[in-house]
Amino acid sequence: MMPEPISRLARLRAGTKAAHARIETAPALARLVARDLTRGEYVFILQHLQALYTHLEPVVAAELETLPAAAALLDGSRPRRLAEDLAWFGASTLPPPPLPVLAGPAAALGALYVIEGSGLGGRVIGRNISECLGVAPGAGGSFFCGLDAESARLRWSRLSAILDEAIIEADSVDHADDRVVAGARDTFGVVERCFRRIEVAAGSGFVTVEAVAS
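-> C-alpha cells emitted (214 positions)
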C-alpha cells in the first residue's frame, strides 16, 4: 500500500521548524510577552513591524498574481492595523528593512505561510499587551488584538486549503514543494532579522542595530 502523500502544510511545518524556533529566541519578541513590557518598547516594535509588513505584503502579492485565492489573503489589513496603531501613539514610521527575493509563486506561497502564521502567534501577544498596557482594537492594539479566535481559525483553514490546491509549475511535486519551503525559510529569515535589529539596551529600552549578521 502506498503511503499517504504529505500535505504541503506539513512539509512547511517540518521544513521551517528550526527557522521558527530561532525567531522565538529574539529578545524583542520575548519582551512582547513579558509582564513588565513598557509602552516605549511596544511602540518601537510596532514601528519595525509596520516597516516590514507594509513593504513585504505587496512583494508577495505581486508574485501570487497567478494564484488569486492566495493573493486575496494579502488584503492589506495587517499594514492598515499597524498604521492605525502607530497613529494612535503619534509615532513615526521607519524605512523598510531588506526584503526577501521571492522568485515566482512557489516561493511567495511560502512567504504567505509565514505572514499568516504570525497572526496566530499574535493572539498570545495580544492578551499580554492588553493586560500590561491597556491597548485594544482601535486604541493602539489593532494589530495584535484585532483578530478574534474564530476569524484566525477561518483564515488558517483557508490558507491550508489554498496550499493543498495550488498548482505550481515544476519538474515534480517534490520540486515545487521544495521551492515553497525555501520561500518560507527566506521569509522567516527576514522576519528574524527584523526582530534582531531591535536590541535591548540596559536602562534605556530598545535600540535599532543597523548591521545584523544573517
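The domain at 8-199 is CATH 1.20.910.10 (Heme Oxygenase; Chain A).
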